[in-house]
Design goal:
Blueprint lengths: L8 H4 L14 E6 L4 H4 L9 H5 L1 E6 L3 E5 L4 E10 L2 E9 L2 H6 L2 H29 L14 H16 L1
Antiparallel strand pairs: 1-2, 2-3, 3-4, 4-5
Length: about 160
């Protein structure tokens, strides 16, 4: 999320510390260690270590199952493909029951709005590359080392197509 989430995720989860481990499975995993006390606040999970309380994790099980979790919120992403270039995205917000009970209606709205704002940043960041990929003069390019999860998804598709 370098650049893309400069004013949202980057504040609590610096992208320079994020890692995507190598794997041979149909999945990608992203670990984003948190640095600030804000990342660890409001935790309802008393058994988590300090570093776990501060961290954000995201996982993709290919081709379309996505989850993200921190000590404060879980997100389950439901992707419904409509065509090769269209999909519907539903984001389900999951809160620990104790945390949910402690939040005011305004807190819940603020949480939802923050999550919406983060994903608006993602949408904006994906529109430009998608337009570029569909340009008449576009040729195949290389992925950056920060795009390991994209490479892992591409390997998944290559294996599936070879098996067919």
């Amino acid at each position: 999320h370098i650049g893309t989430h400069k004013y949202s995720l980057e504040l609590d989860y610096p992208a320079r510390q994020s890692t995507v481990p190598d794997n041979n499975g149909p999945w990608a995993f992203l670990a984003m260690p948190g640095e600030t006390p804000a990342a660890a606040s409001l935790s309802s999970f008393a058994t988590l270590s300090d570093s776990q309380r501060k961290s954000l994790f995201a996982a993709a099980v290919f081709p379309s199952f996505l989850i993200a979790a921190s000590n404060q919120v879980g997100l389950w992403y439901q992707l419904k493909p409509n065509a090769y270039d269209q999909m519907d995205l539903y984001i389900h917000i999951l809160l620990h029951p104790e945390l949910n009970a402690a939040m005011t209606p305004d807190d819940l709205i603020e949480t939802r709005n923050r999550i919406v704002d983060i994903h608006k940043e993602d949408i904006a960041a994906n529109k430009g590359p998608w337009q570029g990929l569909n340009g008449r003069l576009t040729t195949q390019g290389r992925l950056c080392s920060l795009e390991k999860a994209i490479w892992q998804l591409n390997q998944y598709w290559i294996q599936r197509m070879a098996a067919a």
